[in-house]
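Researcher: Next sequence.
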Amino acid sequence: MRVAVIGSGYVGLVSGTCFSEFGFDVTCVDHDAKKINRLTSGDVPIFEPGLDHLIATNRAAGRLHFTDDITSAVKAADIVFIAVGTESRGSDGAADLLYVEKAARDIAHNLDGFTVIVTKSTVPVGTAKRLADIVREASPSADFAMASNPEFLREGSAIEDFMRPDRVIIGVEDDRAKESLRKLYRPLFLRDTPMLFTSLETAELTKYAANAFLATKITFINQIADLCEELGANVQDVANGLGLDSRIGPKFLHPGPGYGGSCFPKDTRALSVIARDAGKPITIVDAVIDANLRRKEDVAGRVISALGGSVGGKKIGVLGVSFKPNTDDMREAPSLVFIPALIAAGAAISAYDPAAMGVAEPLLPDVAWCKDPYDTMLDADAVVIATEWNAFRALDINRMAALMKQPVLVDLRNIYTVEEMSGSPFAYHSIGRPHS
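Model: Next structure:
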C-alpha cells in the first residue's frame, strides 16, 4: 500500500515519516521546493527529537520520499492525507481552509483508481464532506472515499505519540476506506491501541473537543495558582490532590505563563466560532481564551513586581522562549507577549533557548541572544525561567548569584522547590506557592 501526504510541515512530516516506519511506501509532498530540497539532502527544517534519525533510516530503506510533484505522488497512492496548515483566519478565529481546499482540488485532478482521501489537518466539522463535494465537482468520475483522521501529537514527543498513542480516531463512512485505514494502522492494532471508528463529523469535533478540554485544564490550574497565592496555599499540592482523582488525572495541571503553540490557541478559537455559528456557544471555551491571553499579559507584571515595581534601566535574563521544551516552535509563545512588555517598560533583555533562538530572533529583534544560560545572567537584575527545558533544571545557583547584579529569580515553571531556594542567595518567586 502506497501513501501520499500533502503538506510537509510538522504534522505531515511526522505522520509521513512514522507511516514509513510502519513499513509503508510514503511520499511527502510540499509546494515549497526549497523545503523539499532540504529534506532530500537530509536537513530537517523542524526541531523534533528523533525525527532526523527516523527520516534518515527510512530514506535509506527506500520507503520515504520527498517531492514537490503532487501529480506523481497522488497517482501512485492508495491513501492520500491532507496535512496542510489551517491557521486562524483574520480576527474571528475561524480556521482558514484555503490550503485544504486547494489540496483537495489538486488531488481530484490526479486520482487514478480507488483512493482514500483523509483529512489529517485540524478542520471544522463538516469539512470532510465539503471536500468530497469539491473533489466530485473537479473530477466527476473519480473513485474515492473521504475519511477524517485527526492527529494528537504533542510537540517534543510527537514520534512517541504517533507510535504509542492513547487512541486513534478515524471518521469513515465507506467500507473500502475503513478496511484500507485498518490495514494502515495494523501495527497499532497489534499493540492493542484503542481504535474508534466513527462518523466524519464526530472525528472532526473530537479533535477540537480534546484540545479545548486540555486548554481548559491548563487555564483552570493557572487560576487556582493565583488563588493559592492570595490564600497561602500550595498549588503543586492542590494539583497533586486533583491528579490523584482517577476522574481528573495529573496531566496538564502544571501552572505556568499560559498555553501557546500551534494547536491550543488556534483550535480553541476555531471551536468557539464553530459553536457560535451552530447557535450553541461554548462559554467555557470563550472564558479560557480570554483568561489565557490575560495570563500572558500578567507575566510582565510579575517580573516588574519582583523588581520592586520598576524595570526601567534594568537588565533581565530570560531562559527559554519557545512555548514548551523540546521544540523550536514560537507560535503564540508567552515570551512573545511578556518580553516586548518588559522592553516597553524600560528593561534590557538577554535570552537563551536551546533550540528556538533562530526562529525567535526575527520575532524579538530587541533581545540580546546569548551563548548559554549563564551568559544571560551577567550583570542581570533578575532571571526569568520561561520554558522548562531540562538544561535549566540543575543550574549552579551560587554561580548564578555571583554573575548577577542582584539575585532575583522568577520561576514561571516551578522547576525549583521553595525549600531548596530558601537557603540560597536568591529572592525567589514562583507560581502559586508560599515562599519562606
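Model: The chain is about 45% helix and 15% strand. The two ends are 62 Å apart (CA to CA).
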